[in-house]
Amino acid sequence: QVQFVESGGGLVQPGGSLRLSCVVSGTSLSLYPMGWYRQTPGNGREFVAAIAEFGSTNYAESVKGRFIISRDGAKKTFYLQMNSLKFEDTAVYYCNPVTGNYPWGQGTQVTVSS
């Protein structure tokens, strides 16, 4: 069964950076486009960024210019480099294919606080 394991979250001050990782296992199928999402308490998951099979990327307006999505195909790992973090970036971050119906991982908590 396909699984997504996110890591790399933590506590960071405003203006700081974090790099999140998402390791995919349990499938040899192409899961592109792959996306990063985030969720805050009481709200649904929000799209953050996506990367397509040939490398094209797409970002939510709120993170454009600050976040970068990338991948290491050999390692089946996707990354989200988050720079210039803001208080409003605080959330649990998840990775999941943009299309299809796949189980969600446990996510990784990102807290931006001074």
Strand order of the largest sheet: 2-10-9-4-5-6
How many strands? 10
Large-scale geometry: globular
Order of helices and strands: EEEEEEEEEE
Helix content: under 10%
Fraction in beta strands: over 45%
**Mean pLDDT level:** 95
Rg estimate, integer Å: 13 Å
Q: Given the helix and strand composition, which structural class is it?
A: mainly beta
Unreliable residue stretches:
none
Could you tell me how far the N terminus lies from the C terminus, measured between alpha carbons in angstroms?
A: 40 Å
Helix count, DSSP H or I runs of 4 or more residues = 0
Biggest sheet record = 6 strands, mixed
Give a structural overview:
The chain is mostly beta strands and 114 residues long. It has strands at residues 3-7, 10-12, 18-25, 34-39, 46-51, 57-59, 67-72, 77-82, 91-97, 108-112. It contains no helices and ten strands. The chain is globular and about 40 Å long. Helix content is 0%, strand content 48%.
